[in-house]
């Protein structure tokens, strides 16, 4: 089994907006890609009831992950209700144990809405305690404690800004120009979301927004398109920058 990377976000399509280019580059270098979301995106429609839109979006997320030969998982929480409690912690830990990733991508702790903020905390906590044998979970008992704390990277908050509208400091930039077309194809798998915006705004805002953000980030480092991250380097987490090492030349870390 090859080494694995896990993007664990709140909703289907968050990984595509925030880190799919970096996942594609890691996939090119032989890493298995796993994408998980806390919810199935059951709040993502103004016309369909939650169960129906959730079913559609699970299929979309699976098709997107498949473009990187990747696997998709859902922790089964509900949109707008992602909170930190025993059940959500256990589900998150079990998914991290199932994948046993070397690198994890999560939402920025100061991202724009509760589901993203709580996902960030849940994923950080799961990375920390998934290795503890006495951290008992009961949903998938087959998921065994892992033997390491993975490298943890926070993606850019949506639009790159914090709660006050100020630019959030990011330090790791990945040039995704060579895989931009693939990132776009992954995002286009989320047809239900794209069509909604297309219908209401009359332009392909879903795709345009992603391209615009990737261009904005790219401009900072002289790349056509880029994604950016900040590494979690708190107590016990690995502190060297594996992303810069693996994506030799395409990823750089800049001083704040
Ligand atoms: Zn989201």
Strand order of the largest sheet: 3-2-1-4-5-7-6-8
Structural class of the secondary elements?
A: alpha/beta
Large-scale geometry:
globular
> What is the total domain count?
1
State the main characteristics:
binds zinc ion; 256 residues; alpha/beta; 8 strands; Rossmann fold; 40% helix; globular; 9 helices
Description:
The chain has 256 residues and is of the alpha/beta class. The chain has one domain (4-253): Rossmann fold (3-Layer(aba) Sandwich). The protein is 40% helix and 17% strand. The protein is built from 9 helices and 8 strands. Strands 3-2-1-4-5-7-6-8 form an 8-stranded mixed sheet, sandwiched between helices. Helix 4 crosses helix 5. The model has no long low-confidence stretch (mean pLDDT 95). The protein binds zinc ion. The site of zinc ion has 4 residues, from loops.
């Amino acid at each position: 089994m090859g080494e694995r990377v896990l993007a664990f976000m709140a909703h289907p399509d968050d990984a595509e907006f925030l880190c799919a280019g970096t996942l594609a580059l890691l996939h090119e270098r032989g890493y298995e890609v796993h994408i998980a979301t806390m919810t199935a995106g059951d709040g993502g429609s103004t016309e369909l009831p939650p169960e129906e839109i959730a079913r559609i979006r699970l299929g979309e997320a699976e098709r997107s992950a498949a473009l990187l030969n990747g696997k998709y998982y859902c922790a089964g929480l509900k949109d707008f209700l992602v909170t930190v409690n025993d059940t959500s912690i256990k589900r998150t830990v079990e998914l991290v144990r199932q994948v046993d990733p070397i690198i994890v991508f999560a939402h920025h702790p100061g991202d724009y809405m509760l589901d993203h903020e709580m996902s960030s905390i849940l994923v950080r906590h799961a990375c920390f305690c998934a290795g503890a044998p006495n951290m008992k979970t009961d949903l998938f008992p087959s998921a065994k404690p892992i033997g390491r704390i993975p490298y943890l990277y926070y993606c850019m908050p949506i639009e790159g800004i914090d709660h006050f509208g100020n630019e959030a400091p990011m330090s790791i930039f990945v040039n995704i120009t060579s895989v931009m077309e693939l990132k776009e194809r992954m995002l286009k798998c989320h047809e239900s979301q794209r069509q909604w915006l297309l219908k209401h705004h009359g332009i392909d805002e879903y795709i345009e927004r992603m391209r615009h953000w990737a261009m904005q980030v790219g401009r900072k480092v002289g790349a056509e398109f880029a994604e950016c991250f900040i590494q979690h380097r708190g107590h016990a987490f690995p502190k060297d920058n594996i992303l810069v090492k693996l994506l030799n030349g395409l990823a750089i870390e800049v001083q704040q």
